[in-house]
Specification:
The structure is a single chain. Helices cover 35% and strands 15% of the residues. The relative contact order is 0.16. Helix 2 packs across helix 7, helix 8 packs parallel to helix 10 and helix 9 crosses helix 10. The chain is globular. The protein folds into two domains: 240 residues, 3-Layer(aba) Sandwich (Aspartate Aminotransferase, domain 2); 111 residues, Aspartate Aminotransferase, domain 1 (Alpha-Beta Complex), CATH 3.90.1150.10. The chain contains ten helices and 15 strands. A seven-stranded mixed sheet has the order 2-10-9-8-5-3-4. Strands 11, 12, 13 and 15 form a four-stranded antiparallel sheet that branches. By secondary structure, it is α/β, with parallel strands linked by helices. The N and C termini lie far apart (50 Å). The structure holds pyridoxal-5'-phosphate (PLP).
Length: 376
């Protein structure tokens, strides 16, 4: 049963809002998927109907990102956090050094590096940053000659630091990338990576699923102690179904990949992402420092934008609280910044439309007009 509550605009960091047409489509199929008389949740994962869903999902993501046959596409459980362990377990043995290079540019890469320390040697490529506002020049990075792999997070969801170009490494290490929050928001040359992984709940569906794109020749090196579900070789040979997979999450991913294709594919999604983030950064940059973004502009995220509201350059929590209340009155939610950073944060995943972003940018301008004068 549906109630008549108007839908909120969810600018949160995830789980994110889904496109309304995807929700309608899911609703239509809720009691009977494809005339089979059951919801997808009620189907056997070994049934032909579900096999078609997972096969279609793989086909669509391969098409969206031009993923070559030399790469496996795995639909796994345990979230992106699970991959913080699975990646070292599967790759640390690639080189005798058993050392992995980690570029720590925010909360999530820091977590990944800490977890990897359990399984091998971790070399921190740059010194610990006091505030994650920038990425030191690559010429200063301390890389390991024979690293098993190089790890980075393409978009730090909490700190709003995005690395726009894939690093070109002099040691030619295998590159592993957490793309959880900017997956499908920009074009990517998959062949530059050993592994790309991303959780579903931001740009391609709901929680419960992590997509792992891994070059096939790297599979088969897992440590002996690797839990069977985290062993890429086992998952590949079982078509991501060594145990019961998160069938509903895979079904939603399939819907989202299909929706992404119908948007015009990755080029169109990247264009939308640029337009949306430009709207918010324009409101910030034209605010005469009423709104503050502290990130080096070269590393500003197009997807997660943390900012402060300030009087005379000093963040003002009272104004920030007022902004959240005003946003809520206009049906916009989840704009509070992460506790590690404070202030506000806008997340512009693919399910957020340009029109919705315009509403928020408009609110920012109106709010500034009212409160900047009051504060003066
Ligand atoms: C960049 C990034 N990596 C990893 C994670 C952890 O994802 P999960 O909660 O699916 O484990 C998140 C969650 O927000 C994230 O933003």
């Amino acid at each position: 049963m549906c109630d008549n509550t108007p839908r909120k605009i969810n600018f949160g960091p995830g789980p994110a809002q889904l496109p309304i047409e995807v929700l309608h489509n899911v609703q239509k199929e809720f009691f009977s998927f494809d005339n089979c008389g059951s919801n997808v949740m009620e189907l056997s994962h070994r049934s032909p109907a579900f096999s078609k869903i997972i096969d279609d999902a793989e086909k669509d993501i391969r098409e969206l990102l031009s993923i070559p046959d030399t790469y496996a596409v795995l639909f796994l459980q345990g979230g992106a956090t699970g991959q913080f362990s699975a990646i070292p377990m599967n790759l640390i043995n690639l080189k005798p050094s058993q050392t992995a290079d980690y570029l720590v540019t925010g909360y999530w890469s820091e977590k990944a590096a800490k977890e990897a320390e359990k399984y091998g040697k971790v070399n921190y490529v740059i010194p610990k940053q006091e505030k994650y506002h920038d990425v030191p020049e690559q010429t200063t990075w301390n890389l390991t000659d024979d690293a098993s792999y190089f790890y980075y997070c393409a978009n730090e969801t909490i700190h709003g630091v995005e690395i726009h170009d894939v690093p070109v490494l002099p040691n030619k290490a295998q590159i592993v990338c957490d793309m959880s929050s900017n997956f499908l928001t920009r074009q990517v040359d998959v062949t530059k990576f050993a592994i790309i992984f991303a959780s579903g709940q931001k740009n391609f569906g709901c929680s419960g699923i992590v997509l792992v794109i891994v070059r096939k020749d790297l599979i088969g090196n897992a440590m002996k102690s690797t839990p069977v579900n985290f062993d890429f070789k086992v998952q590949l040979s079982n078509n991501s179904m060594y145990n019961t997979p998160p069938t509903f999450s895979i079904y939603i991913s399939n819907k989202m990949f299909d929706w992404s294709k119908r948007q015009g594919g990755i080029k169109a999604l990247e264009k939308q992402s640029k337009i949306k983030s430009d709207l918010i950064y324009s409101a910030i940059d034209q605010s005469n420092r009423f709104y503050l973004s502290e990130i080096n502009p070269s590393y500003r995220s197009r997807v997660n934008i943390p900012f402060r509201i300030a009087i005379n350059g000093v963040p003002d929590e009272k104004l920030e609280k007022l902004f959240l209340e005003e946003a809520l009155r206009l049906n916009m939610i989840e704009l509070k910044g992460h506790r590690a950073v404070g202030g506000l944060r806008v997340s512009l995943y693919n399910g957020i439309t340009i029109e919705e972003t315009e509403k928020l940018a408009q609110l920012m301008r109106t709010f500034q007009t009212i409160h900047c004068v009051e504060a003066a």
